[in-house]
Amino acid sequence: MSKGLTSKNDDYSQWYNEIVIKADLAEHSSVKGCMVIKPYGYSIWEKMQAVLDQKFKDTGHSNAYFPLFIPKSYFSKEAAHVEGFATECAVVTHYRLKNDGNGNIVVDETAKLEEELIVRPTSETIIWNTYKGWIESYRDLPLLINQWANVVRWEMRTRLFLRTTEFLWQEGHTAHATSQEAIEETERMLDVYADFSENWMAVPVVKGKKTANERFAGALETYCIEALMQDGKALQAGTSHFLGQNFAKAFDVKFTSKEGKLEHVWATSWGVSTRLMGALIMAHSDDAGLVLPPKLAPIQVVIVPIYKGDEDLQKISLFVDELIVKLKGIGISVKYDDRDSQRPGFKFAEYELKGVPIRLAIGGRDMENGTVELARRDTKEKSTVPQEGLDLYIANLLDEIQANIFNKALQFRNEHITEANSYEEFKSLLDDKTGFIAAHWDGTPETEKRIKDETKATIRCIPLNNKQEDGVCMVTGKPSTQRVLFARAY
Amino acid sequence: MSKGLTSKNDDYSQWYNEIVIKADLAEHSSVKGCMVIKPYGYSIWEKMQAVLDQKFKDTGHSNAYFPLFIPKSYFSKEAAHVEGFATECAVVTHYRLKNDGNGNIVVDETAKLEEELIVRPTSETIIWNTYKGWIESYRDLPLLINQWANVVRWEMRTRLFLRTTEFLWQEGHTAHATSQEAIEETERMLDVYADFSENWMAVPVVKGKKTANERFAGALETYCIEALMQDGKALQAGTSHFLGQNFAKAFDVKFTSKEGKLEHVWATSWGVSTRLMGALIMAHSDDAGLVLPPKLAPIQVVIVPIYKGDEDLQKISLFVDELIVKLKGIGISVKYDDRDSQRPGFKFAEYELKGVPIRLAIGGRDMENGTVELARRDTKEKSTVPQEGLDLYIANLLDEIQANIFNKALQFRNEHITEANSYEEFKSLLDDKTGFIAAHWDGTPETEKRIKDETKATIRCIPLNNKQEDGVCMVTGKPSTQRVLFARAY
């Protein structure tokens, strides 16, 4: 295994790409813009899925599955949605191939669809078209459904996990009797995402609302969680949308209220995707490779024997086998790498690259002394630890590592929120890659657009419970009552 | 909730459709041939997935994810695969829609793909194209990978779960250094499927090999498990393919052996799909609705209070709350349905229709007597059971129900394997819907095809460890050494 990652300070983008490839997380496929998620990367995604899925179920949601294809006409039904999604999509026009007689496979032109089908870029339209048949009365509400699925948005410039033509995600789609209930649901799911991001991914986030310009196509309000990467760019890690009655009206979904009135249903949708993998990688990793928070690490502890002969190895393995039983018994995932085809140094570098939180090395002398050598991936500290009580020591250490990774990211994030009081200062901070910039803005889409055009910075969010203070817009000088968070973003 | 299912003896096909719809398992979507899997149906599929996924991991496999799209040219690379799969496929030709200015969404003809993309009908080609980059040496083998995914095969005549244009499945794709290892893998995964079918789904299966005519396109050998439905038709419940070196040669995947020789890799693939839902429904259900084996039932026990006033209900609920804690503590899933909007009789019918294995009803007199009324879904027996020790009673009963459902299906299957010694007898047995027919056949594809054309019966499999006996082909009178299993099939 070749190591030698590009340093993140030299070329952050290259450093990221190399970690994704060299840590065996994902690779570009031969299909433009689509990725292959490799087993190690997928096993991290599976852990994310399991945690999120349980949280969705704990908050009353059920999973279901809706079609991959959406009839083209559905996109015309919700006006704002049209502009947002009926653009860069994969379009299915035919349903048969044939052999042309010379061994070439060609499209059978006689098998043309009457109406083209779009590979779902998001499923609001097909789902609300289905909900029409499911909702009649207030007794059918709330309808709390989630779907795990693949979606396709045709992207010209792609980056593994961060922006790919096909990606995996979950999309929640709920229906409610009142506006208030729908807003509560939107906020509840934002909290679920923030909890997941902070307490599992160890990535601190700012919860906030998007400006009108940045809202989901068809939403009345888009809530988001915004994370900060180590290069000072922001990453939107999850969104939760209050859709009002827009989709209910577009697809004619009404219910009879307790009072016997026929009313349109209120909607939300919310989602996170394999993009979270990008956030996880970029938030914590270093020049030696991936750094994984223990709660999402497929392998939490790796054990490498250092031995001279078979007798040495046998003695070590006997101890390790017992340790593995103990560790698994308390829910810790562990791998024993006793391959004889690779030297310990090679293995050390490999697990460092793959972000395994704790590495144990055990040699003949350790066996004599009743110790092991323990290396932490997060701090790179090595120590000699007694074999006695090692399982509980490791259990505590994993918690400590989880907390340490979060606190490090939190400190970095907090140190990278800067106030700007003039447009010049704002631009200079951006050039210095200082992270989030809190600045006054006059509240108009025009000013927001001008800032974006001139600086590539966008308003990431208006934080929830934002401090109110009098000020003037840094661009127009018009009055403003609060600072909003700007950043360049992924 | 309206009940009144069509009787399975009157119209089996209609009975099946009604159960799928009325038990809230799935429904047809507005996209031709695609289904919506509803929350209750999906929760059964999730239980299937969880069990299978664990079995795959226990046998050393990892999950990964490969692209939804396959370049058209890949289908030309493996000759036999071409004929089998490059036919009824969804073809993506464009990647953009646009607004025509009149509010209509139309395909942007300037955004035409140079090479069309096919929505995967199965992933051998894209995966083996990827494996080329993953395999260099014997150290990279075996490569044991599974994918959970959606696939699309354009079907003209569809039936919910049994045959849909889009369906969900898992596909295992493994690479090995030797033919022997690949064959062992093929057989191992067949055993996994058989174990799952019999011990979780409670559906007995015959393990066997397909004839050349019925093999997977590109396979040297297709193993299968065949189940018998209550109408005497067979259903292929899983397949495992030994692909030889066909895909390795088509995609140039070679490895350096221990001896330093460059050789093509040996391959297998194996899969089961949401079709299993159809098998599960058809194997056990009755005229009152779905019958679910406890191990796959999302709700194993439902509790319905029978009460006159709030005081009654409070007393009952106090007892039920404690019972639920106990049941959940021993891993039993339970639902307490204390809705006041429906009468007990309505609820009884609903849970019967949904196949919940055990129903408890508890009224005021039960509370006085320290009893509950317990109804088994499989036998429809009702009994009065003491509240004391109820949790363990239920745990044992669930095991008994699981065994009973399997044994009933096994007895049915065994009673529906009949030997035919002449073609006339064969045809008459088919007309009587007697299930599997064991008959001698001369081993030629021509005779097999003639039988299929004339009777719609196919050779379901040549059972593994088949009894060898001298005989003559029922059609041609040519010599035969064994009986093979025929049936009409789903």
From TrEMBL, chains A, B:
It is found in: Cytoplasm. PROSITE patterns: AA_TRNA_LIGASE_II (PS50862). GO terms for cellular component: aminoacyl-tRNA synthetase multienzyme complex; cytoplasm. PANTHER family: BIFUNCTIONAL GLUTAMATE_PROLINE--TRNA LIGASE, PROLYL-TRNA SYNTHETASE. Belongs to the class-II aminoacyl-tRNA synthetase family. ProS type 3 subfamily. Homodimer. Its EC number is 6.1.1.15. Consists of three domains: the N-terminal catalytic domain, the anticodon-binding domain and the C-terminal extension. It comes from Pedobacter insulae. Keywords: Aminoacyl-tRNA synthetase, ATP-binding, Cytoplasm, Ligase, Nucleotide-binding, Protein biosynthesis. InterPro entries: aa-tRNA-synt_IIb (IPR002314), aa-tRNA-synth_II (IPR006195), aa-tRNA-synth_II/BPL/LPL (IPR045864), Anticodon-bd (IPR004154), Anticodon-bd_dom_sf (IPR036621), Pro-tRNA-ligase_IIa_arc-type (IPR004499), Pro-tRNA_ligase_II_C (IPR016061), Pro-tRNA_synth_II (IPR017449). This is Proline--tRNA ligase. Gene3D superfamilies: Anticodon-binding domain (3.40.50.800), Bira Bifunctional Protein, Domain 2 (3.30.930.10), C-terminal domain of ProRS (3.30.110.30). It holds the Pfam family HGTP_anticodon. Its main location: cytoplasm. Transmembrane segments: none annotated. Residues 39-293 form the Aminoacyl-transfer RNA synthetases class-II family profile domain. Catalyzes the attachment of proline to tRNA(Pro) in a two-step reaction: proline is first activated by ATP to form Pro-AMP and then transferred to the acceptor end of tRNA(Pro). GO terms for biological process: prolyl-tRNA aminoacylation. It catalyses: tRNA(Pro) + L-proline + ATP = L-prolyl-tRNA(Pro) + AMP + diphosphate. The keyword Lipid metabolism does not apply.
